[in-house]
Amino acid sequence: MTSRKWMGLAGAVVLVLACGAPESKDIGGWDRSDETSTATIEHGPWQEILDAYVRADDSGVNLFDYAGMSANAGDTAKLSAYIDYLQGQDPLAYSRDEQMAFWINLYNAVTVQVVLSEYPVDSIKEIHEGVIPNTGPWQDPHAAVNGRDLSLDDIEHGILRPLWRDQRIHYAVNCAAYGCPHLLATAFTAANTEELLEQGARDYVNNARGVDFVDEDFIVVSSIYDWYTEDFGNTEESVVAHLIDYADEDLAARLEGFEGSIDYEYDWSLNEP
Q1: Which of 52, 115, 109, 117 is nearest to 81 (CA)?
Q2: Domains identified in the chain, total number
Q3: How far is it, in rounded angstroms, from Cα 244 to Cα 116?
Q4: In terms of residue numbers, what domain contains 242?
Q5: Do 131 and 196 share a structural domain?
Q6: From CA 188, how far away is CA 262, in angstroms rounded?
Q7: What is the pTM of this model?
Q8: How far apart (Å, rounded) are the C-alpha atoms in residues 246 and 250?
Q9: Under a CB-based contact definition with an 8 Å cutoff, are residues 230 and 169 in contact?
Q10: Residues 223, 246: one domain?
Q11: Tens-place pLDDT, residues 75-130
């Protein structure tokens, strides 16, 4: 299991065995690009924020210093200005590769802003506008692009997943939870997206948050592989095959031919130091 202490606080850590995760469904209007365009979107301010506030813990998990950033008015203003800048872009006027980096960075930057807006919290699941507690902010509109209000779910499940159909998107967008794949310390660009998607997959699979052997006949894997099993082949066998693809040599050898039991867990505590 992850090295972080499992806490009993309501909303802080949740062991999820099943979840009605959002389906991948095109929300329409975003499946267009200009492949003749050589224009780029500037992500320098986001890189400066990542440089200043992303730190790895002793087990190699990237954490974000929300406390430090919330105390720095200049950097919170920089984040707001960066998000405003992204919202002022028309992603349809850019190449498809430029678009993918745009949507991933927008998702991650808005997620940080959402947490900061309510900080301190034990879990992002505590942040919500509805009446049902601990449902999180994902269905609330937090961005507007081309005059359309968008939620975090719209960006991830209505644009990124259905239009790119790349399982590695799950390793790129960060939901501000300790159990989530990294908030990578490098901003996505059209030039580095492929490299970062591969890095995100390897980092997660080879950390106990992704897959952890309890013994040779029992492994615990991230609930991501349960919630979004359709993206990983729809069977436990296909999930294990995916893990093998990104596992280091020792882990891959243990997963080869694995026929034991699989359980799913997820740590919803905030990804902060």
Answers
A1: 109
A2: 2
A3: 37
A4: 211-265
A5: yes
A6: 33
A7: 0.92
A8: 11
A9: no
A10: yes
A11: 999 999 999 999 999 999 999 999 999 999 999 999 999 999 999 999 999 998 87
